[in-house]
Each structure stands twice: as C-alpha cells, then as structure tokens.
Amino acid sequence: MRTCIGCRKQGKRSELIRLVAEGDGSPVVLVDERRRMAGRGAWLHPSSSCLTLASKRRAFARALAGASEATAVERYLATVIPPADTHHVEAGKPSKSESGLEN
C-alpha cells in the first residue's frame, strides 16, 4: 500500500503513479512510468484533483527534497486522463418535448 501525496489516501501500487526528483539545485518532478528510477519516490493518484491538492499543500517539495517544478507531471496526466465529455446540447432546444409525447 502506498499513500497519495495529494489526497493522503492509501492505494495499491498499481493504482498510483510514482514520482521522482531529478536535477541539482532546484530539482524537477518526473513521472517514473516503469517504477525503476533511482532515488526516493512519491506516489500520486492519476487525477487532476490529487495533483491540485499536492501542489496546494506543497507536497512535492516535502516528499522529494525541495522539488517544486511539476510541469512534467501535468503533461503526463493530460495524456492519461480522458478529456471531459465533449458532447454538447444545443442551448434553448430541449432533447424531449415538454409533454413527453413524440410527434
């Protein structure tokens, strides 16, 4: 079991993504897709809400030795999380008649 640095809930290793810090000085946060990179790791649910919580709580810096730049994580999650439903209903035009009867 691992703990998400965003929501602080526990989950299985397969449910979370592993993050690592890379670089000297001001390290950046990278997604360790294969879960094999060297160094200390942190875990995050692959959701935008957990990413937002982790950023708000400054969890990246605490968990990964001062790392704060998480744009690589944002880009990764943009490719993994399916986009919002793009089905739009035309404004002012109900999908059914108000009486419920079809003509």
Write structural notes for this entry:
- By secondary structure, this protein is α+β, with helices and mostly antiparallel strands.
- It contains three helices and five strands, in the order E-E-E-E-E-H-H-H.
- The protein has helices spanning 48-56, 59-63, 71-80, and strands at residues 2-3, 10-11, 17-22, 28-31, 41-44.
- Strand 3 and strand 4 form a beta hairpin.
- The chain is globular and about 35 Å long.
Q: How would you describe this structure in keywords?
A:
single chain, 103 residues, alpha+beta, two-stranded antiparallel ribbon
Order of helices and strands: EEEEEHHH
The structural class is alpha+beta
How many strands, what sense, and barrel or not for the largest sheet?
3 strands, antiparallel
The number of E-state strands comes to 5
Give the spatial strand order of the biggest sheet: 4-3-5
Gyration radius (Cα, Å) is 20 Å
Give the number of helices: 3
Mean pLDDT: 83
- Spans with pLDDT under 50 lasting ≥5 residues? 85-93
What percentage of amino acids are in beta strands?
Answer: 15-25%
Helix content: 10-25%
Could you say which overall geometry the principal axes of the C-alpha atoms support? globular
- Termini separation (Å)? 57 Å
